[in-house]
Amino acid sequence: MKKLLSVLVIGVVLFLPLGAKALDLGFNCEKSCRNEDTGVCEQRCTLSISGNTNPEGLTSVTPTFTITGDADKVRLGSLTAASDNIIASSSRAGDVITMEFVFTGAITEESFDLGTLVLELDDNATDCSGKFALNGVEYPEIKIEITEEVETGVALPLTILACGVGAGAVIYVVTKKNKKIYKI
Q1: How many domains does the chain have?
Q2: Which H or E run includes 137?
Q3: CA distance 135 to 133
Q4: 153 within some domain
Q5: Structural domain containing residue 130
Q6: Do β-strands 96-107 and 58-61 pair in parallel, antiparallel, or remain unpaired?
Q7: pTM of the predicted model over 0.70
Q8: Is the residue at 125 inside a domain?
Q9: Is residue 123 domain-resident?
Q10: What are phi and psi of 41, to 5 degrees?
Q11: pLDDT by residue (tens digit) across 123-176?
């Protein structure tokens, strides 16, 4: 009987993790750059949760965002909740931004939106990448590329061409006027 109970316990322990499903943090980040008034780029990340199988519902979620680039050039702009029944708060300690979403009632939906995280990037920032994490699970790094609007000189070849045509026309006119016929 002890042997059968041992086998049953080992079987449950081995197959129990296969039935568990963790929460999944979804994020979609978009960058708008170089606000002319403030000189600041903004990175807006919309956060969502999927895979909620808790029958009693969730009462809070605490994701983090770790800055892996120029952390001193990234500021926490704002954190807004996706709906009225979510209270959002955030704090920053060093390179880690901790977000806390507390729900006014337990949420039993499988998928739902959490809110929007806005990061402000200095105008001289070059590498402002980072990683989201939820319940110890790290997600792939987000690369925040900072690009300047650079004059490409596209008009330069057209200017050179126009100058060349103008110079050719001047040379043609000058040589036509000075053409003299000599009789020997």
Answers
A1: 1
A2: strand 137-138
A3: 7
A4: no
A5: 21-138
A6: antiparallel
A7: no
A8: yes
A9: yes
A10: -90, 150
A11: 666 677 888 998 888 888 887 665 555 455 565 666 777 777 777 777 776 666
